[in-house]
Specification:
The chain is an alpha/beta fold and about 325 residues long. Helices cover about 30% and strands about 25% of the residues.
Length: about 325
Protein backbone atom coordinates (compact mmCIF):
# COMPACT_ATOMS: atom_id res chain seq x y z
CA UNK A 1 0.00 0.00 0.00
CA UNK A 2 2.82 2.38 0.92
CA UNK A 3 4.58 1.72 -2.39
CA UNK A 4 1.35 2.53 -4.21
CA UNK A 5 1.20 5.85 -2.42
CA UNK A 6 4.79 6.60 -3.38
CA UNK A 7 3.96 5.85 -7.02
CA UNK A 8 1.04 8.28 -6.70
CA UNK A 9 3.44 10.87 -5.25
CA UNK A 10 5.91 10.28 -8.07
CA UNK A 11 3.21 10.65 -10.71
CA UNK A 12 2.10 13.94 -9.20
CA UNK A 13 5.69 15.20 -8.98
CA UNK A 14 6.28 14.32 -12.61
CA UNK A 15 3.15 16.14 -13.73
CA UNK A 16 3.71 19.38 -11.82
CA UNK A 17 7.44 19.43 -12.54
CA UNK A 18 6.89 19.14 -16.27
CA UNK A 19 4.39 21.99 -16.28
CA UNK A 20 5.98 24.41 -13.81
CA UNK A 21 9.62 23.92 -14.80
CA UNK A 22 8.71 24.65 -18.42
CA UNK A 23 7.07 27.95 -17.45
CA UNK A 24 10.00 28.79 -15.15
CA UNK A 25 12.47 28.16 -17.96
CA UNK A 26 10.46 30.44 -20.25
CA UNK A 27 10.56 33.17 -17.58
CA UNK A 28 14.28 32.50 -16.96
CA UNK A 29 13.68 31.60 -13.31
CA UNK A 30 16.24 29.53 -11.44
CA UNK A 31 14.23 29.38 -8.19
CA UNK A 32 10.55 28.46 -7.93
CA UNK A 33 7.99 26.33 -6.10
CA UNK A 34 6.65 23.31 -7.94
CA UNK A 35 4.70 21.37 -5.31
CA UNK A 36 2.63 22.65 -2.38
CA UNK A 37 0.55 20.11 -0.48
CA UNK A 38 -0.87 18.80 -3.76
CA UNK A 39 -1.64 15.41 -2.17
CA UNK A 40 -2.88 15.29 1.45
CA UNK A 41 -0.77 12.19 2.15
CA UNK A 42 2.37 14.15 1.16
CA UNK A 43 2.08 17.58 2.85
CA UNK A 44 5.22 19.24 1.53
CA UNK A 45 6.10 22.66 0.19
CA UNK A 46 8.85 21.85 -2.33
CA UNK A 47 11.06 24.54 -3.87
CA UNK A 48 13.69 24.32 -6.58
CA UNK A 49 16.74 26.49 -5.89
CA UNK A 50 18.87 26.28 -9.02
CA UNK A 51 19.43 22.52 -8.89
CA UNK A 52 18.81 22.07 -5.17
CA UNK A 53 15.58 20.91 -3.54
CA UNK A 54 14.22 22.37 -0.30
CA UNK A 55 11.25 20.31 0.88
CA UNK A 56 9.41 21.42 4.02
CA UNK A 57 6.89 19.02 5.53
CA UNK A 58 3.93 20.70 7.17
CA UNK A 59 3.51 19.53 10.76
CA UNK A 60 0.60 17.11 11.05
CA UNK A 61 -0.70 14.08 12.95
CA UNK A 62 0.65 11.37 10.65
CA UNK A 63 0.33 8.50 13.13
CA UNK A 64 3.88 7.28 12.49
CA UNK A 65 6.50 6.50 15.10
CA UNK A 66 9.70 8.56 14.82
CA UNK A 67 11.70 5.75 13.20
CA UNK A 68 8.88 5.00 10.78
CA UNK A 69 8.57 8.68 9.89
CA UNK A 70 12.31 8.90 9.22
CA UNK A 71 12.11 5.96 6.82
CA UNK A 72 9.08 7.52 5.12
CA UNK A 73 10.95 10.81 4.63
CA UNK A 74 13.87 8.93 3.07
CA UNK A 75 11.46 7.17 0.70
CA UNK A 76 9.98 10.53 -0.29
CA UNK A 77 13.50 11.80 -0.89
CA UNK A 78 14.12 8.78 -3.13
CA UNK A 79 11.01 9.67 -5.13
CA UNK A 80 12.18 13.27 -5.57
CA UNK A 81 15.65 12.16 -6.66
CA UNK A 82 14.17 9.70 -9.16
CA UNK A 83 11.67 12.06 -10.80
CA UNK A 84 13.96 15.11 -10.90
CA UNK A 85 17.06 13.09 -11.73
CA UNK A 86 19.18 14.70 -9.03
CA UNK A 87 21.50 13.43 -6.30
CA UNK A 88 19.92 12.85 -2.90
CA UNK A 89 22.63 14.98 -1.29
CA UNK A 90 21.04 17.96 -3.06
CA UNK A 91 17.68 17.38 -1.35
CA UNK A 92 17.11 19.06 2.02
CA UNK A 93 14.02 18.11 4.03
CA UNK A 94 12.58 19.82 7.12
CA UNK A 95 9.46 19.67 9.22
CA UNK A 96 7.69 23.03 9.54
CA UNK A 97 6.10 23.70 12.91
CA UNK A 98 3.84 26.63 13.59
CA UNK A 99 5.39 28.86 16.23
CA UNK A 100 3.63 31.49 18.29
CA UNK A 101 4.79 34.86 17.07
CA UNK A 102 7.67 36.00 14.94
CA UNK A 103 10.20 34.62 17.41
CA UNK A 104 9.81 31.15 15.90
CA UNK A 105 11.39 32.44 12.71
CA UNK A 106 14.64 33.04 14.59
CA UNK A 107 14.93 29.60 16.21
CA UNK A 108 17.67 27.38 14.86
CA UNK A 109 16.64 24.16 13.15
CA UNK A 110 19.99 22.41 12.99
CA UNK A 111 23.57 22.97 14.02
CA UNK A 112 24.84 22.37 10.49
CA UNK A 113 25.38 25.19 8.06
CA UNK A 114 25.08 24.63 4.34
CA UNK A 115 24.81 27.82 2.33
CA UNK A 116 24.42 28.27 -1.41
CA UNK A 117 24.23 31.27 -3.73
CA UNK A 118 21.18 31.36 -5.99
CA UNK A 119 20.23 33.84 -8.74
CA UNK A 120 17.03 35.87 -8.98
CA UNK A 121 16.28 38.89 -11.13
CA UNK A 122 19.87 39.39 -12.20
CA UNK A 123 21.00 39.38 -8.56
CA UNK A 124 22.38 36.71 -6.24
CA UNK A 125 21.20 35.69 -2.78
CA UNK A 126 22.67 33.60 0.01
CA UNK A 127 20.33 30.83 1.09
CA UNK A 128 20.80 28.58 4.10
CA UNK A 129 19.48 25.06 3.55
CA UNK A 130 19.99 23.61 7.01
CA UNK A 131 20.12 25.97 9.99
CA UNK A 132 16.68 27.56 9.96
CA UNK A 133 13.08 26.73 9.07
CA UNK A 134 13.24 29.07 6.06
CA UNK A 135 16.02 29.42 3.50
CA UNK A 136 16.29 33.22 3.66
CA UNK A 137 14.61 33.93 0.31
CA UNK A 138 10.81 33.95 0.12
CA UNK A 139 10.04 33.08 -3.50
CA UNK A 140 6.44 34.33 -3.39
CA UNK A 141 7.58 37.98 -3.28
CA UNK A 142 9.83 38.01 -6.35
CA UNK A 143 7.32 40.10 -8.39
CA UNK A 144 6.93 42.57 -5.51
CA UNK A 145 10.70 42.85 -5.23
CA UNK A 146 10.94 43.78 -8.89
CA UNK A 147 8.22 46.43 -8.42
CA UNK A 148 10.28 47.94 -5.61
CA UNK A 149 13.38 47.95 -7.81
CA UNK A 150 11.54 49.80 -10.55
CA UNK A 151 10.26 52.41 -8.06
CA UNK A 152 13.51 52.87 -6.14
CA UNK A 153 15.60 55.11 -8.40
CA UNK A 154 16.69 58.23 -6.52
CA UNK A 155 14.55 57.28 -3.50
CA UNK A 156 15.28 57.04 0.19
CA UNK A 157 14.01 53.52 0.89
CA UNK A 158 12.98 51.99 4.22
CA UNK A 159 12.69 48.19 4.57
CA UNK A 160 10.96 47.19 7.82
CA UNK A 161 11.01 43.65 9.24
CA UNK A 162 13.70 43.32 6.58
CA UNK A 163 14.58 39.65 7.25
CA UNK A 164 17.59 38.82 4.98
CA UNK A 165 17.28 42.05 3.02
CA UNK A 166 16.18 40.85 -0.42
CA UNK A 167 13.96 43.93 -0.86
CA UNK A 168 16.88 46.09 0.23
CA UNK A 169 19.17 44.53 -2.38
CA UNK A 170 16.56 45.04 -5.12
CA UNK A 171 16.10 48.68 -4.05
CA UNK A 172 19.85 49.31 -4.12
CA UNK A 173 20.08 47.67 -7.54
CA UNK A 174 17.29 49.97 -8.74
CA UNK A 175 19.36 53.03 -7.89
CA UNK A 176 17.99 54.00 -4.49
CA UNK A 177 19.64 57.03 -2.95
CA UNK A 178 19.70 55.37 0.49
CA UNK A 179 18.37 52.09 1.89
CA UNK A 180 17.58 51.67 5.59
CA UNK A 181 16.88 48.11 6.79
CA UNK A 182 15.40 47.41 10.24
CA UNK A 183 14.93 44.06 11.98
CA UNK A 184 14.85 42.56 15.47
CA UNK A 185 17.39 39.86 14.60
CA UNK A 186 21.11 40.57 14.42
CA UNK A 187 21.53 37.28 12.56
CA UNK A 188 19.23 38.33 9.74
CA UNK A 189 20.60 41.88 9.61
CA UNK A 190 24.09 40.48 9.12
CA UNK A 191 22.70 38.16 6.44
CA UNK A 192 21.06 41.16 4.74
CA UNK A 193 24.34 43.04 4.75
CA UNK A 194 26.14 40.02 3.31
CA UNK A 195 23.55 39.84 0.50
CA UNK A 196 24.19 43.50 -0.26
CA UNK A 197 27.95 42.98 -0.21
CA UNK A 198 27.83 39.85 -2.35
CA UNK A 199 26.06 41.81 -5.08
CA UNK A 200 28.74 44.51 -4.83
CA UNK A 201 26.11 47.10 -3.94
CA UNK A 202 27.00 47.92 -0.33
CA UNK A 203 28.15 51.44 0.57
CA UNK A 204 28.33 52.39 4.23
CA UNK A 205 27.29 55.96 3.40
CA UNK A 206 24.08 54.81 1.69
CA UNK A 207 23.02 51.58 3.38
CA UNK A 208 22.08 51.42 7.04
CA UNK A 209 21.23 48.21 8.94
CA UNK A 210 19.42 48.93 12.20
CA UNK A 211 18.97 46.35 14.94
CA UNK A 212 15.80 46.96 16.93
CA UNK A 213 12.11 46.46 17.54
CA UNK A 214 10.50 47.88 14.40
CA UNK A 215 7.33 48.96 16.17
CA UNK A 216 9.32 50.85 18.79
CA UNK A 217 11.66 52.32 16.16
CA UNK A 218 8.69 53.72 14.23
CA UNK A 219 7.82 55.94 17.20
CA UNK A 220 11.13 57.75 16.68
CA UNK A 221 11.25 57.59 12.88
CA UNK A 222 11.93 60.99 11.33
CA UNK A 223 8.82 62.42 9.60
CA UNK A 224 8.67 62.89 5.82
CA UNK A 225 11.98 61.06 5.43
CA UNK A 226 11.31 58.18 3.05
CA UNK A 227 10.11 58.08 -0.55
CA UNK A 228 9.48 54.33 -0.52
CA UNK A 229 8.67 52.01 2.39
CA UNK A 230 8.45 48.21 2.36
CA UNK A 231 6.68 46.69 5.35
CA UNK A 232 5.99 42.95 5.73
CA UNK A 233 5.12 42.51 9.42
CA UNK A 234 4.40 39.26 11.27
CA UNK A 235 0.83 38.11 11.80
CA UNK A 236 1.41 38.10 15.54
CA UNK A 237 4.38 38.73 17.77
CA UNK A 238 4.95 38.50 21.49
CA UNK A 239 8.73 38.47 21.52
CA UNK A 240 10.39 39.09 24.87
CA UNK A 241 12.44 41.76 23.11
CA UNK A 242 9.29 43.75 22.33
CA UNK A 243 7.48 45.93 24.86
CA UNK A 244 4.01 44.68 23.93
CA UNK A 245 2.40 42.09 21.69
CA UNK A 246 1.39 42.78 18.09
CA UNK A 247 -1.60 41.54 16.13
CA UNK A 248 -1.74 42.42 12.42
CA UNK A 249 -5.53 42.61 12.16
CA UNK A 250 -5.94 44.66 15.32
CA UNK A 251 -2.90 46.90 14.86
CA UNK A 252 -2.51 47.43 11.10
CA UNK A 253 -4.22 50.85 10.95
CA UNK A 254 -1.99 52.56 13.56
CA UNK A 255 1.01 50.84 11.94
CA UNK A 256 0.17 52.18 8.47
CA UNK A 257 -0.50 55.65 9.90
CA UNK A 258 3.02 55.67 11.32
CA UNK A 259 4.38 54.61 7.93
CA UNK A 260 2.51 57.47 6.26
CA UNK A 261 4.04 59.96 8.70
CA UNK A 262 7.45 58.71 7.68
CA UNK A 263 6.68 59.17 3.98
CA UNK A 264 7.46 62.21 1.90
CA UNK A 265 4.46 63.94 0.29
CA UNK A 266 4.73 61.69 -2.76
CA UNK A 267 5.78 58.64 -0.75
CA UNK A 268 4.80 55.07 -1.60
CA UNK A 269 4.33 52.02 0.61
CA UNK A 270 4.34 48.31 -0.19
CA UNK A 271 2.51 46.64 2.68
CA UNK A 272 1.99 42.89 2.98
CA UNK A 273 1.24 40.22 5.55
CA UNK A 274 0.56 36.49 5.77
CA UNK A 275 -2.63 36.45 7.80
CA UNK A 276 -5.08 34.27 5.88
CA UNK A 277 -8.20 36.15 7.05
CA UNK A 278 -6.76 39.67 6.93
CA UNK A 279 -9.20 42.49 6.12
CA UNK A 280 -7.78 45.95 5.42
CA UNK A 281 -9.65 48.77 7.17
CA UNK A 282 -9.51 51.11 4.18
CA UNK A 283 -11.77 53.82 5.59
CA UNK A 284 -9.42 54.52 8.49
CA UNK A 285 -6.28 54.82 6.37
CA UNK A 286 -5.66 58.51 5.45
CA UNK A 287 -3.97 57.90 2.10
CA UNK A 288 -4.61 59.05 -1.46
CA UNK A 289 -4.38 55.53 -2.91
CA UNK A 290 -4.78 52.12 -1.34
CA UNK A 291 -4.68 49.37 -3.96
CA UNK A 292 -4.88 45.63 -3.41
CA UNK A 293 -2.07 44.17 -5.53
CA UNK A 294 -2.23 40.64 -4.11
CA UNK A 295 -3.13 39.01 -7.44
CA UNK A 296 -0.67 41.16 -9.39
CA UNK A 297 2.18 40.14 -7.08
CA UNK A 298 1.38 36.42 -6.90
CA UNK A 299 3.81 34.43 -9.08
CA UNK A 300 2.47 31.69 -11.36
CA UNK A 301 3.92 28.94 -9.15
CA UNK A 302 1.94 30.20 -6.13
CA UNK A 303 -1.43 30.72 -7.81
CA UNK A 304 -4.22 29.31 -5.66
CA UNK A 305 -1.75 28.31 -2.93
CA UNK A 306 -0.79 31.68 -1.44
CA UNK A 307 -2.59 33.24 1.50
CA UNK A 308 -0.67 36.48 1.92
CA UNK A 309 -2.08 39.93 1.12
CA UNK A 310 -0.20 42.77 -0.56
CA UNK A 311 -1.15 46.45 -0.94
CA UNK A 312 0.27 49.51 -2.68
CA UNK A 313 -0.34 52.74 -0.78
CA UNK A 314 0.35 56.29 -1.92
CA UNK A 315 0.36 59.12 0.60
Amino acid sequence: MESEKQIMFQNRLQKVWKHISKTAKRQELACFRFYDHDLPEFPFAIDWYNGIIHAAEYKRRHGMEDDEHTVWLETCKDSLALILNIDKKDIFMKVLQRKAGRQGQYEKFDEQKIEKIVPEGGLNFIINLTDYLNTGLFLDHRITRDMVRKDAKGCNVLNLFCYTGSFSVYAADGGANTVTSVDLSKTYLNWAKRNMQYNKLYKDTKHDFIHGDVLEWLDYMPPNAFDLIVCDPPTFSNSKRMESDFDIQRDHVPLIKKLLKGCTETGKIYFSNNYRNFVLDREDIPALTVKDITDATTPFDFKGKLHRKCYFIEK
